[in-house]
Amino acid sequence: MLTRRVFQRTVMPALASLPTLAAVAFNEAASAAPVRSKLPLVMLDPGHGGMDPGAIGVSGTFEKYIAINTAMELRRQLLASGRYRVAMTRTRDVFIPLDQRVVDAQRNGASLFVSMHADAIADPAVRGASVYTLASHPSDAQSAMLAQSENAADRFASGQGSGAPSAAVTNILASLVRRETRTESALMQRAVVDSLARNVPLLVNPARHAGFIVLQSAEIPSVLVEMGFMSNRADEAALRQPAHRAVVAAALKGAVDRYFAAVATGAPLGG
Ligand code: ZN
Predict the structure, then answer these.
(1) What separation in Å is there between the alpha carbon of 146 and the centre of ligand 1?
(2) Has residue 23 been placed in a domain?
(3) Long-range pairs of 138-143 with CB within 8 A, sequence gap ≥ 24
(4) CATH number (domain holding residue 171)
(5) Which protein residues have a CB closer than 5 Å to ligand 1 (ion)?
(6) What is the pLDDT of residues 228-247, one digit of tens each?
(7) Taking a C-beta distance cutoff of 8 angstroms, is the pair 22, 31 a contact?
């Protein structure tokens, strides 16, 4: 039988040293979380979807399918590396407004936002991949038109108007983006261009900028990748092939690796 003296000598000190239930719960949460929460979250944004097919290729391919199929492959490769968490603005064929894509990235606490497209342009002879960052003033007329047609995607939701913001609105939104975010967006842009250059044809001057709504996160470095143009027969044919999409995804994964390595060390992009 437990005497009062024995209880005081042995059991009471043991009870005193037990952490409270709340502390146990907190410690469990803290020890379960770190490995996961230390990994950066990459937000992939497959363009278009649902009632918005995006560009329609010369032989009838819908951009929205190229975008999601390549994004799913990139997600697979990023997760397989064990170095990232990945979220997507859409994993199904649904329409997501442009603003919503930005908000989703912010809610998820994304460290990087990669919008994926394969749009069409007026000249069917023009081909190759290109990478865009946000700017109030477009780098060239072609980029200005691309941004205008991208920004018009929200017309599918409202069923009216072009959905494109006025130049003044774009100016204001672009000016809200932090300097550090701009610098890191440019770093990611260079990483993607370098990485794609080793694997796929590139557009002339592949690093461009324009007023894309979807790139307007103030805090999250963001790029928009045109993986090729649906208006070009060769680009469309290539992007229809799973093997080619895997090559594009691998190049983007390589760029994500180099981007985070550069951000972590503060050093320029490594080879
Ligand atoms: Zn697009």
Answers:
(1) 8
(2) no
(3) 138/208, 138/209, 138/210, 138/211, 139/205, 139/208, 139/209, 139/210, 140/205, 140/208, 142/208, 143/208, 143/209, 143/210
(4) 3.40.630.40
(5) 47, 54, 117, 119
(6) 999 999 999 999 999 999 99
(7) no
